[in-house]
Write a structure and sequence with these properties.
With 304 residues, the chain is of the alpha+beta class. It folds into three domains: 59 residues, no CATH class; 92 residues, 2-Layer Sandwich (Pseudouridine synthase); 122 residues, Pseudouridine synthase. The chain contains seven helices and 16 strands. The protein is elongated, with a radius of gyration of 22 Å. Keywords: Isomerase.
Length: 304
Amino acid sequence: MSYQGNWVRRGEWLELTPGKILTGQSDREGATAKWLLETVGMPEKLLRKLQHTEGIQWRGDRLRLSLFPAREAGIEPMWSELEVLYEDDFCLVVNKPAGMAVHPDDRGTETTLNHTVAAYYEASGVEAAVRHIHRLDKDTTGPVLYAKNEYAQLKLDEAMRQKEIVRIYAAIVQGRVSPDLKVIDLPIGKDRHHAQRRRVSLTGQTAVTRIIESEVYRQASLLYLSLETGRTHQIRVHLSHMGHAILGDSLYGGYSVSFGRQALHGARLSFSHPFTGEIIEVAAPWPEDLLQLKAEIASKPFLR
């Protein structure tokens, strides 16, 4: 469900013109609520909240929804370079650099992507809470999706639960990966011997990784992968267990090739727009160090 008609934002309000399907109803309030739930696809939780706060109003034939109320960022703005890959009133997609966490850890001493997004909102005059929909490991690059209002957050969180947000990763791994290896379906649990590590464990949580494309070189392979589940370090654990650890991933046995992090990049992101239902596809450019590594493994007979 999504809204296919025209709409315009006016400050905190979203204005729609549903037409006689609602304006001609004797019980317009009840018909409006039903239409918002069943046709537009508004989450019931938000509908009830807007009804309680007078966030649903009629101005002549225009239906106004308070979807963009001003909100505090919820995190201190800290400026850093930010590459925006997609943005509208509902969503923001940014390209996370290597070496930056998405959100603060317990110590909270480093600038994170969320701090940077807060600074971007502040500079752009966007009064919205910083709400990331998914995460990437600190040293993994690629697109991170943010919701710019509560409507988008509720819809995108549900899309994540339903596995409707598609993330394609590129990984450069050691060894020649067999073309027969298409799916890695192995449960993942905590490693009791190492607080940061995860491992394949029969008592762990279900984890499924799919290899959708590959390029095999002399002693390494480039893989494009998708996730059916989102376990911590899932790609890294699965590939290491199969004997194809990601290059530079010292935590999971990937040998170094003068590359200071794991060679893992979020290459593409695809999702349904939370309001219009339009399919949004975002490609994240490869970082320069990963491009250089790819050129190196393709041209040299041995990795050192």
